[in-house]
Amino acid sequence: MSDWQDVAPAADLAEGAYVSKEIDGIRIAVFRVDGALYAIEDVCTHDGGRLTGGPRIGCRVICPRHGAAFDLATGAVLAPPAYSPIATFPVQIAADWIQIQIPDSF
Ligand code: FES
Predict the structure, then answer these.
(1) What is the SS3 assignment for 22?
(2) What pTM value is reported for the model?
(3) Domains, the chain, with CATH or none
(4) Which atom of ligand 1 has the smallest separation from the CA of 44?
């Protein structure tokens, strides 16, 4: 596992919001839902669309392109046309910064 990497100041991510950022060439999104943080790869496994910008209901995020749905906590597919899960990453707040860990093998 790699070192923790800064994403954004924790104070910049309001409840219900997300931040999307490229880290090491990977498009990452971190959502704050009911006070908890969830980090995913911001890429739909159906056809590569960004998941941010689409609807979100609780931990269910819906791709704005064709409507596939995923669980932010587990990455599992909740609705087609995607059939492969999205990647999720460990996330924490340290020294007032949101940080994620991207596996070395990713
Ligand atoms: S690119 Fe996300 S459902 Fe098609």
Answers:
(1) strand
(2) 0.95
(3) 5-100 (2.102.10.10)
(4) 2
